[in-house]
């Protein structure tokens, strides 16, 4: 009995550690977008070849390296969070990086986020919250042997082949034609490759756990293969994420990248760890609803990002209320007795208001 209680307390303690690491990861990753964008803008002002045109001058800019360091810290915290909390909690919490990036970009990059973008960000966060509540539970994988068996699954092999083929087509076919006009091209590459990198992170986390437990895992080739694959995937992500950030607005790239990346990770985890097999109906409906909410938010953010929202677009009663709100409340307090006479006609109300004004003037 006491052992079960201690195990429950330890599990709750690990949950809060994972939650704290996931939150700090979102802060660092959200800030990294701003630092990288500042570095890329600084290089553009000097006339250097931009990353969107294939240049790599950002490797000599300290702001870009500061952004990379911030992203590295965030990814390290995210990596550690997977060891304490389930992936279904850690991955959707990346939505907070959207808010961090959007707020910081409005202050430090002077990037205007209209009301559609703000609503889109809010919907993305709400949708991710619903997905967290109804997220499927992952199948337990506690050793490299079981991880190796999962990686040999035909479903995961087919998924990995589709990701690699689609990424190659996006890079060499769609990129030169539509990369500078469509934000989805480069972001899709980052998201698809990123889903494979998360699988590598899970495998490396298991490797580190077994290493700390005293097992001879360094002699196992799977751990080294996962490490090499992770380095390759992260390199591809960094390269094409820089291209997207250099060409498009940060407040647009960040939410779209989050949604596509989260969707790809959820799909990869469902295929690799068979998370959807034991879900009940209301959790399936909740997960789909959360996903559709996120898609709606991204649609608002992306489709209307260049459309201004001036006060002239407000409904007439809102514009009148905005202009005369103060006067209305003053007159409402002054003529409160008259306002509570709904049976009076317009002429009687006009006469009553005139009489009240005359009495006020005589006093």
Characterise this structure.
By secondary structure, the protein is mostly helical. It has helices at 2-46, 62-84, 87-90, 95-108, 115-133, 144-151, 154-178, 184-212, 221-247, 250-273, 281-303, 316-334, 336-339, 346-362. Helix 1 runs parallel beside helix 4 (95-108). Belongs to the NIPA family.
What's the structural blueprint in terms of helices and strands?
Blueprint lengths: L1 H45 L15 H23 L2 H4 L4 H14 L6 H19 L10 H8 L2 H25 L5 H29 L8 H27 L2 H24 L7 H23 L12 H19 L1 H4 L6 H17 L1
Please outline what is shown here.
This protein is an all-alpha fold. It has helices at residues 2-46, 62-84, 87-90, 95-108, 115-133, 144-151, 154-178, 184-212, 221-247, 250-273, 281-303, 316-334, 336-339, 346-362. The protein has 14 helices and no strands.
Keywords summarizing the entry:
single chain; 363 residues; mainly alpha; globular; disordered C terminus; transmembrane; EmrE-like; Magnesium transporter NIPA2; Mg_trans_NIPA
Q: For the terminal residues, how far apart are their CA atoms?
A: 83 Å
Largest sheet: none
The helix-and-strand class reads mainly alpha
- Seen as an oligomer or otherwise, the chain set is single chain
Share of helical residues: over 70%
Structural Rg: 27 Å
Transmembrane segments: 15-35, 62-84, 90-110, 156-176, 183-204, 224-241, 253-273, 279-301
Keywords: Membrane, Transmembrane, Transmembrane helix
InterPro entries: EmrE-like (IPR037185), Mg_trans_NIPA (IPR008521)
Main location: membrane
